[in-house]
Write a sequence for this structure.
């Protein structure tokens, strides 16, 4: 009897396992509401740096944490492109949208330049409505990898033509741009978009209420490639969260059964290309406000919602610490209240209005960065800044620091680099790096992301949870 029981037990267990496997297979979870949030350039040190910055600013430990660092599934993934260990946003975005490696500077194409379907295509096929939201231009690299196939991301004429032909239902960005940020280019394409049936809005609340299946929401700063940096924002300025809230409201009404939404914190990368730490941390906080808005939706639909937060690549080679010390003095950065670009504008305005004396310039650096006031300046540092002022600002020699997206005043750059040095926040480059990047997942199907190793794995997992499959040639 005892022996019979021992023989029967394994069969019994096998039957349970088999029936469980069948049930699991039959009930492959479906993500009805998918939120895909991309922090452009947001490496792990940027994320951790933001939390330390917040804590140093006096936030409680709970407030200082970014919402997504609390997600149950987290990991790291490689970000290299098909042609370089150092990816650009076009290739990294293509990997994240389609599940294939691309060449740098190419959108929606594999390394053989074959067009590939994206998660926006999967959404359309599976009956999801979709929104693509970014705080940089709607025809910039990361938004467009979801609907454009182009071998040159800078062919703005063709990229924009494909943008207005896309089947996305809600498209939001700062503006429509070309490489030189020409207003007539944006205006012409916005008119073309209207002809193609887009309803174009400058008001988030009006866009949210629209009944159209093609809604384009642009910030009111036509011909500015980006909206204002979050650190420079005033009340009433467009923020990423305004776009996010409008898109959620629109999709809840227009697609209550299922929708897909991509949100890009594109401005993080802009600040990082300038090596502007405080501005980049405030940008990450700004993107976190959108993640919090998504989590409010998640709380209402916890069994049907998937939230994936990723970075496309790391920018700046940012390190927390340096100079062979064990110190990180983040308090040196918390008095900076403008971006490097805004400080450049302030300094150039002083010079242009004949008020560029050393006393006035020093007063501006105190007001904008806290130097000589909350942040002590040694006599050697004072001398160094004065020499830069004299050589670059007064005599106009070597007076610009040009990054990918900005042309900054040398003195603004050097003053912010001095703050970084005092804080022991260090940089290795003004471009991207090959550092692996973090991902964070919460919600239905999150457990299927635990084995993600490379950025191409992410869209494959998301597509499966939407009932589709990637990668796939178009
Ligand atoms: Zn970049």
């Amino acid at each position: 009897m005892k022996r019979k029981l021992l023989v029967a037990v394994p069969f019994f267990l096998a039957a349970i396992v088999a029936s469980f496997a069948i049930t699991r297979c039959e009930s492959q979870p479906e993500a009805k509401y998918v939120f895909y949030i991309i922090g452009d350039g947001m490496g792990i040190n940027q994320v951790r740096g933001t939390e330390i910055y917040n804590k140093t600013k006096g936030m409680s430990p709970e407030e200082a944490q970014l919402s997504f660092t609390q997600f149950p599934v987290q990991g790291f993934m490689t970000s290299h492109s098909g042609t370089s260990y150092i990816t650009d946003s076009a290739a990294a975005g293509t990997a994240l949208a389609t599940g294939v490696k691309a060449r740098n500077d190419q959108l929606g194409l594999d390394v053989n330049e074959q067009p590939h379907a994206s998660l926006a295509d999967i959404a359309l096929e599976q009956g999801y409505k979709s929104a693509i939201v970014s705080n940089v231009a709607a025809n910039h690299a990361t938004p467009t990898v979801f609907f454009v196939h182009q071998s040159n991301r800078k062919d703005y004429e063709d990229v924009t033509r494909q943008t207005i032909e896309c089947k996305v239902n809600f498209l939001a960005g700062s503006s429509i741009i070309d490489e030189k940020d020409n207003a007539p280019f944006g205006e012409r394409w916005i008119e073309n978009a209207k002809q193609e049936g887009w309803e174009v809005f400058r008001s988030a609340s009006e866009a949210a209420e629209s009944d159209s299946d093609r809604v384009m929401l642009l910030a009111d700063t036509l011909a500015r490639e980006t909206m204002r940096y979050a650190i420079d924002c005033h009340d009433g300025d467009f923020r990423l969260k305004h776009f996010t809230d409008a898109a959620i409201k629109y999709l809840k009404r227009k697609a209550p059964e299922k929708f897909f939404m991509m949100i890009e914190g594109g401005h993080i990368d802009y600040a990082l290309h300038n090596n502007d730490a405080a501005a980049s941390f405030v940008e990450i906080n700004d993107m976190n406000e959108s993640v919090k808005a998504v989590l409010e939706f998640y709380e209402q639909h916890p069994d049907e919602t998937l939230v994936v937060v990723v970075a496309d690549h790391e920018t700046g080679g940012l390190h927390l610490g340096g100079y062979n010390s064990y110190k990180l003095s983040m308090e040196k950065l918390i008095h900076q209240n403008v971006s490097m670009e805004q400080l450049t504008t302030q300094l150039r305005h002083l010079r242009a209005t004949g008020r560029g004396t050393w006393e006035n310039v020093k007063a501006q650096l105190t007001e904008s960065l806290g130097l000589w006031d909350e942040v002590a300046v040694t006599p050697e540092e004072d001398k160094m800044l004065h020499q830069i002022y004299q050589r670059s600002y007064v005599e106009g020699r070597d007076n610009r620091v040009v990054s990918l997206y900005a042309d900054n005043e040398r003195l603004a750059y050097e003053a912010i680099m001095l703050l970084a040095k005092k804080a022991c926040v260090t940089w290795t480059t003004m471009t991207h790096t090959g550092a692996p990047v973090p991902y964070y997942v919460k919600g239905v199907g999150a457990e299927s992301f635990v084995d993600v190793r490379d950025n191409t794995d992410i869209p494959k997992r998301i597509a499966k949870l939407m009932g589709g499959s990637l990668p796939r040639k178009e």
About this structure: The chain has two domains: 33-318+431-465, 322-426.
